[in-house]
Structure to design on (834 residues):
């Protein structure tokens, strides 16, 4: 069904490039996303004071008029360029009929400038202007977005680029690409659908005919074994994205595939692409067929260059890559939703109006034993998965052996994970009885691709970070959820159920251990402080958002140097709304 | 400072959202979410082997949060053109609590009988255990005690085979057991009734899915014996045409 759907959709995209939508491009295109991009040594156009006006205005999204939240009339909002060392002066005026806010994602700033209503300030009331003021002490690729309700889903977001002091971008030209997911449905309706009807947006479920086919190919016993675990857990191996291409139009700089956002280059030039995943719910797999990409920054922070052919970008993450197209021809920038329910493409081109071949969507991936255990093991000799276990399953999975292929042993591998005897209550449908490190895995659907995909263990910080202390203390948090009622939480408790913040002691160095006790990937974001990822590399990469795979455990080092209250949450918008949110208090 | 206001807040409003709420007049960053749903699992016309036409409903409505919900359930049927009033098989108002990830415990009161002015209704107390069993069996098990002290157990189980992304084959089984004899309501103890059905459903949208199906209904045990003694048929078959609808 979904394949038919997508095929139909592609056909439609090809034929529906109408005059109306052609005319709309000029109107819809954020002015900053000009095809020329920016060249090294260009004059830096940083206004000393930047005014941003938040309003709701009808705008063409793809080939239909939607009602997004616009920032200075655009969706996504304007590219804000600041310079390291300057004082940011950003005046945000609310022209909506409800409260709003802007959070500067990944920026180190005072707590009252962080823009989270209820945590850092009271929000911006209708008609009011909030003046954000902070010193910019970092550089790189970041973004900004609303932290009020579900406004982010309505396009209340934009890119934020901070130029380094010396102005050197390490390339001849740069383009900023912000990916997002748009729906014409009311975000409140989307949330209710998720709440009352499990799997509402999933049109890629396993059918009985696929089961018959599996039985025919591999026999009844093996098929039963594969289905057994999922049946006991009452979960679906095809449950990859909660909200899918069945309602989403995926956008690149506010334009869909048909509008084909284009970026210019001259053959031989080094082009820096600043790629931001500003989606509410969608992980993307990004590649440019025919071009190698060299990752030079993750979450705005420099890393030692890693050449890759493809990378997965979790919600709220950013990656900077450098490409050097030598040929005088267009290349497709392809961002495929990780559940393969849709994609958006743009074009990197030597002249406007060209386009390159658009890859087909790849096959729907599947979680579970076939995808991450038994099936793949024979091919790679690598146990890609791990044991999932429902509370009541006991030790049924002992037949699954664990053979990991790490080069280095990570600290987290020696950390014993504690689960409460009783599990995590009714809010958690699963506990990972044997969580493992999965930082070396590319993620679901990318296990067997025949080119180089970025993995977290590839990331090496470009230089040492100031605090080299060993952690004095350890905090363990479990990511928990119950799909049936769409409850998401930490340690089985939604935000509304906890009785206080997570306490960090000011000045301490601590290790945060997180365990994903769910079947979903979660991008976890800490405000106000960096998290150094203990991935076996040194210097460690540091991140503002870290994606955890199902049943994964990770450890991060944090210097609690930012006094005040900070949000800590899953960056999947509807997971946060459902309760996967905590306040960290540094005092 | 924040710690103090938190403590005060937590003491004043136990169980309410106060976590990390730094200032009293600030909004909560994440609020408890309440919603509701009305679901007609079966809303159908039935043609029996006795050539009777019936209109049948089986619905549930709820409102609440993730753990606590107010639940209303109702089932019934009306034989068309027989001049008889509608037969209300159940109308129950329950409080539901999520006791484990897949199961909620419900307790409340119910009534049943024919919907006519002179009929006396049978009122009862009911507890249900409703949820999703391993291997995706959707179950609702209810134990009812009426004013006479008669005890009845009803169990409904549904399963769904996914045919395509929008169509399903759904077997359904329902049985009734009387734990006690009841003279007033002419019930014999033991397993009394079994109903097995199969439906093919196609979603026009997630919210509206028409279906066609068949069922077999049979009396069992003492109940069947009693019916035979009275010269009644103990089994019934039928075809159904209906829709699963929610909003």
């Amino acid at each position: 069904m979904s394949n038919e759907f997508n095929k139909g959709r592609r056909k439609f995209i090809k034929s529906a490039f109408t005059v109306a939508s052609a005319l709309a491009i000029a109107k819809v295109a954020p002015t900053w996303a000009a095809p020329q991009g920016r060249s090294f040594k260009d004059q830096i156009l940083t206004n000393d004071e930047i005014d941003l006006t938040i309003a709701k205005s009808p705008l063409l999204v793809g080939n239909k008029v939607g009602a997004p939240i616009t920032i200075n009339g655009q969706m996504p909002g304007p590219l804000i360029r600041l310079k390291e060392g300057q004082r940011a002066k950003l005046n945000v005026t609310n022209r909506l009929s409800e409260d709003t806010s802007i959070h500067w994602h990944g920026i180190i700033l005072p707590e009252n400038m962080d823009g989270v209503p209820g945590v850092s300030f009271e929000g911006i009331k209708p008609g009011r202007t909030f003046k954000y003021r902070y010193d910019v002490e970092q550089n790189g690729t970041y973004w900004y977005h609303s932290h009020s309700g579900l406004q982010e889903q309505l396009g209340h977001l934009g890119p934020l680029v901070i130029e380094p002091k010396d102005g050197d971008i390490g390339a001849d030209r740069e383009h900023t690409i912000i990916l997002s997911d748009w729906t014409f449905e009311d975000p409140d309706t989307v949330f209710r659908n998720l709440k009352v009807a499990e799997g509402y947006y999933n049109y890629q479920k396993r059918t009985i005919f696929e089961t018959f086919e599996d039985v025919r190919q591999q026999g009844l016993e093996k098929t039963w074994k594969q289905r057994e675990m999922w049946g006991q857990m009452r979960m679906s191996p095809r449950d990859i994205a909660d909200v899918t291409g069945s309602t989403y139009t995926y956008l690149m700089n506010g334009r869909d595939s048909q509008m084909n956002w284009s970026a210019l280059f001259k053959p031989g030039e080094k082009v820096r692409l600043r790629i931001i995943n500003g989606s509410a719910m969608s992980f993307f797999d990004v590649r440019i067929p025919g071009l190698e990409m060299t990752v030079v920054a993750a979450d705005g922070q420099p890393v030692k260059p890693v050449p890759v052919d493809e990378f997965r970008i979790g919600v709220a993450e950013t990656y900077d890559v450098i490409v050097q197209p030598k040929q005088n021809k267009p290349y497709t920038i392809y961002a495929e939703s990780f559940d393969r329910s849709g994609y958006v493409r743009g074009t990197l081109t030597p002249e406007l109006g060209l386009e390159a071949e658009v890859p087909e969507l790849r096959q729907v991936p599947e979680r579970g034993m076939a995808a991450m255990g038994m099936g793949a093991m024979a091919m790679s000799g690598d146990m890609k998965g791990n044991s999932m276990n429902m509370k009541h399953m006991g030790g049924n999975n002992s037949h699954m052996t664990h053979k990991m292929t790490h080069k280095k042993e990570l600290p987290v591998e020696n950390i014993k994970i504690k689960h409460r005897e009783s599990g995590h209550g009714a809010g958690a449908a699963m506990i990972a009885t044997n969580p493992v490190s999965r930082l070396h895995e590319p993620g679901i659907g990318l296990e067997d691709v025949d080119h180089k995909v970025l993995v977290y263990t590839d990331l090496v910080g470009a230089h040492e970070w100031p605090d080299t202390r060993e952690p004095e203390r350890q905090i363990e948090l479990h990511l928990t959820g119950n799909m049936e009622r769409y409850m998401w939480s930490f340690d089985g408790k939604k935000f509304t159920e906890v009785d206080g913040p997570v306490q960090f002691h000011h000045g301490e160095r601590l290790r945060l251990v997180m365990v994903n006790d769910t079947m979903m990937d979660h991008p976890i974001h800490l405000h106000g402080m960096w998290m150094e990822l203990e991935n076996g590399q040194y210097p460690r990469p540091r991140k503002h958002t870290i994606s955890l795979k199902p049943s994964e455990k990770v450890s991060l080092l944090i210097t609690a140097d930012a006094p005040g209250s900070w949000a800590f949450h899953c960056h999947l918008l509807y997971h946060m709304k459902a309760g996967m949110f905590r306040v960290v208090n540094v005092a | 400072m924040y710690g103090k206001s938190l403590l005060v807040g937590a003491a004043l409003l136990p169980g309410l959202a106060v976590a990390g709420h730094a200032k009293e007049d600030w909004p909560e960053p994440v609020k408890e979410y309440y919603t509701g749903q009305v679901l007609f699992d079966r809303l159908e016309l039935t043609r029996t082997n006795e050539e009777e036409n019936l209109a049948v409903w089986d619905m549930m409505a709820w409102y609440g949060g993730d753990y606590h919900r107010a639940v209303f359930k109702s089932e019934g049927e009306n034989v068309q053109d027989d001049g008889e009033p509608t037969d209300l098989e159940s109308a129950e108002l329950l409080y539901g609590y999520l006791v484990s990830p897949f199961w909620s415990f419900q307790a409340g009161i119910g009534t049943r009988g024919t919907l006519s002015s002179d009929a006396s209704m049978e009122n009862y107390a009911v507890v249900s255990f409703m949820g999703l069993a391993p291997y995706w069996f959707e179950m609702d098990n209810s134990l009812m005690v009426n004013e006479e002290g008669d005890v009845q157990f009803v169990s409904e189980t549904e399963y769904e085979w996914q045919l395509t992304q929008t169509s399903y084959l759904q077997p359904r089984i329902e049985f009734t057991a009387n734990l006690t004899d009841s003279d007033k309501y002419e019930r014999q103890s033991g397993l009394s009734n079994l109903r097995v059905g199969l439906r093919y459903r196609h979603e026009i949208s997630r919210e509206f899915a028409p279906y066609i199906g068949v069922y077999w209904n049979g009396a069992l045990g003492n109940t069947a014996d009693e019916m035979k003694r009275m010269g009644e048929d103990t089994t019934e078959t039928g075809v159904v045409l209906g829709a699963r609808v929610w909003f």
User: Anything to note?
Assistant: The mean pLDDT of chain A is 87. Helices of chain A lie at 2-15, 19-28, 187-196, 208-233, 369-372, 374-380, 573-577.
